[in-house]
Amino acid sequence: MIYKIKQTKTNFSMQWIVTQGDNLICTVDAPYKGYYFDANITFSNNKQYRMYFNPHDTTYGKKLEDRLSFKIFDQNNNLIGNFVGRTKRTGKLFGGYLYYELNISDTQYIGYEVGRGAEGIALCLYRDDKLLSICDKNTKIINFKDEYSIYCENEEDIYISTLFTIYYDMARFANMQEIKLYSETDNYVVTFNKELKAKYDPEFIPRIKAIDGIVD
Asked: What's the domain count of the chain?
């Protein structure tokens, strides 16, 4: 399964769409709320989520981690999970890397950012030791609007992969309230940590493409 995530609005109110071929799969709308982020995520089958981030809101806990996490709510506005960034130490004094943890509906997912230089950024999403999806981020960003390609083995993994990608985009490349007539930037990330680099499976994307009948 191959999907595209494209940011269609930026600056103040923000929007992303998820497509598969010519089919609209999901729309993410985040009206401007000032210093906090509040997005409605609606899939074409009417599955809905809400993603909320407000570091000043202590309703869900007063600890720093509670305030800095992105909360996930279901369509009835029940809190069902959260995203939080963590650091993995790898032995050396200053060695380690950032990873992302999502706990949702009693299931834990771990996301990794693997920078591949000019080839782009690969977001690798795992449940336990199983790689569920890889999301490739374009290096070129025009008018602050990011684009991603998501490769999933199973159709149901597009839900968690979409949530992860929107969270990542806001956490790393939000560009909120940035306004220019035209902007074009190249964003390169290079990962050197061997343990983190190993989270990227170079055979995963070609395998998904082959399933969809795509030959590079």
From this structure: 1
- Checking if the pLDDT of 123 tops 80, the result is yes
Burial class of residue 170 (count of CB atoms within 10 Å of its CB; 0-12, 13-18, 19+): buried
For 51, the domain range is 2-203
Residue 91: HSE in the Cβ half-sphere, 13 Å Cα cutoff: 3
Q: Is residue 213 part of a domain?
A: no
Could you list the beta-strand ranges (E) of the chain. Answer: 2-9, 14-20, 23-30, 37-43, 48-53, 70-73, 79-89, 96-104, 107-115, 121-127, 130-137, 140-142, 147-152, 184-186
**154-206: pLDDT as tens digits:** 999 999 999 999 999 888 876 655 555 556 666 778 899 999 999 999 999 99
Handedness of CA 134, 164, 68, 146 (dihedral sign): positive
pLDDT tens for each residue of 58-95? 988 888 888 889 999 999 999 999 999 988 887 766 67
CATH number reported for the structural domain that contains residue 165 in this entry: 2.40.160
12 lies in some domain? yes
Q: Which residues contact 194 (CB under 8 A, 6 or more apart)?
A: none
